Amino acid sequence: DSLPRVKMMKILMAGLLVTYALLAGLFLLNVSTSILYPLMYLIYAQQAILFPMAFWNLANNIYSLAEARKLFPLLSSGELLGRLIGYSIFTLTGLLGHSQISQNIIQNPSLIMGISALLFLFGLITLPRVEEQTQKIKKKTSFVANLKSGFETIREVPFFRNMSALVAFTWVALTILLFNFYASLDEASAQGLQFQTTYSIYNIAVLFLPLLFQWTFVDELLERISPKIGYLFLPFTLLVSLALAFLLPNIFGGISALFIAMIIYRGWYMPLYQSLYKLVPQERRGRVRSLLGNTSYTVGSLIGALLVGATMLLLPLWDVNPALTRTVYLVAALGATAAAIYVAFRIRATYDDSMFSWRVARRTRTVNGLDRLDDL
Asked: Mean pLDDT across the stretch 293-318?
């Protein structure tokens, strides 16, 4: 919050440029992959948290609420498009009879890391210069003070408080469904199914459909459907996904359960979720985003992972049937989904009152009269 958003993006992109360049060098030096692959995953996990936070802070600072509703679905599609291209490089080449190309790429990870570094360099060079409404910080505040300020905003506004709980409960269920997906895919691979091809095809489909959804009518739906109703969609979708996982204890159930949930999550929930930060005052937006999004996401993911881990480690000690083990962690996901549905209804009940809180950012007026009408 104390740095201009464009400057923050430049620092982050420069850091990622150096990181991927170093990874490329380490692969060229033949450093053990048992070290580099876990390191790559950790870097990817941090990038997945930090980069969207910096990017959406910048976007929320530039665009008005009316512009955000129209443009954020398009901006969200950029991540999906990038993932789609990445998975297609490995999968489509093989399906089109050029499997040697994908094999060469897999066997030369330094090439992938080098290209990644060049992409961040390109982004750094082409990052547009924009006029920002920066906040002048009169005095530096401590980390604890910043944390308390963001926590106070979330605690005192029912909408933000309920959203924090919704994100956490949602990711408990999604983490368990993700594990169930991998377990189903691993079991099918042991029976002869090609893990890499199936996984890539799944990701292409789960990325392409939300991308198509965002490019067509999601912006119109966001304008017509109130957020207090829109947040109900994902929890009920998770309920349908879990029903499929229970009814189909095989690869079809594992894939379809996660597939349906991620389609709604990426195609509908994420554009809606990103637009809510326009309601947070600019001077607190970064710390509120960190607590509301990243901390709640992390807590939910950790709880989901701990539930799965405890189930997989403890139940086998009593010689429990593997099918029962799967049922136990799916029941835990069902409990989290029920909690998410309850919280979504609380969002609906308290949304209007939350909008009158002085801690919610007021809609700013622009010179253009049409913009003012859009914001009404």
From this structure: 85
